[in-house]
Amino acid sequence: MTSRRYRLTRQGARAATLVAVVSMALVGIEAAARTQQAGGGVDRPDPDQVIPAGVTVSGLAVGGLTVAEAERTVAAYASRPVAVSFRNESWRYAPQTLGAEAQVDTAVQAALGAPEGASLPLRVEVDQTTLSTWKRSFAAAFDQERRDAKLVL
């Protein structure tokens, strides 16, 4: 059995820190989503019901829309790519690639029962296995094999 030794470069450390920060943010979002789900399931609303005026979901105006229109609007908003930047490089990933799934139905259900002008969050559930797999593959691009140092005077 052989083992490989790697040296963590400054660039690799920054990439690992970036991945850790993104992971922690997604874990926080998932925790909030699971807390909200603990309340139990509810019946699906009539798709033609109209959401009260002025209601927003994660800053997105859904007031005055029918349930079906709001679901399409929020789903399109939630499927926007997530940008990850490091130094002069930038990558864009679909939320599903990172294991994230927005709780669109829950948000629209809450918007339907919210008072006029309410501002509601959009909860996101994160699959930790998918996120960990992505994190390892992303970090692998920055890993470098360790080499012995030489000092010449």
Provide a concise account of the structure shown.
The chain is of the alpha+beta class and 153 residues long. It has helices spanning 10-37, 67-78, 104-113, 128-140, and strands at residues 6-7, 56-57, 60-61, 82-86, 89-93, 100-102, 119-120, 124-126, 144-145.
Walk me through what this model shows.
The chain has 153 residues and is of the alpha+beta class. It is 41% helix and 17% strand. It has 4 helices and 9 strands, in the order βαββαβββαββαβ. It has helices at residues 10-37, 67-78, 104-113, 128-140, and strands spanning 6-7, 56-57, 60-61, 82-86, 89-93, 100-102, 119-120, 124-126, 144-145. Strands 3-2-7 form a 3-stranded mixed beta sheet, with helices on one face. Strands 1-9 form a two-stranded antiparallel sheet. β4 (82-86) and β5 form a beta hairpin. α1 (10-37) runs antiparallel to α4 (128-140) and α2 (67-78) crosses α3 (104-113). It is elongated, with a radius of gyration of 21 Å. The model has no long low-confidence stretch (mean pLDDT 82).
Short descriptors:
153 residues, alpha+beta, two-stranded antiparallel ribbon, 4 helices, 41% helix, elongated
List the helices and strands and how they pair.
Elements: E1 6-7, H1 10-37, E2 56-57, E3 60-61, H2 67-78, E4 82-86, E5 89-93, E6 100-102, H3 104-113, E7 119-120, E8 124-126, H4 128-140, E9 144-145
Number of helices: 4
* Percentage of residues in helical conformation: 40-55%
Q: Which stretches of 5+ consecutive residues score pLDDT under 50?
A: none
What's the N-to-C terminus distance?
38 Å
Q: Give the averaged pLDDT, no decimals.
A: 82
What form results from the Cα inertia axes? elongated
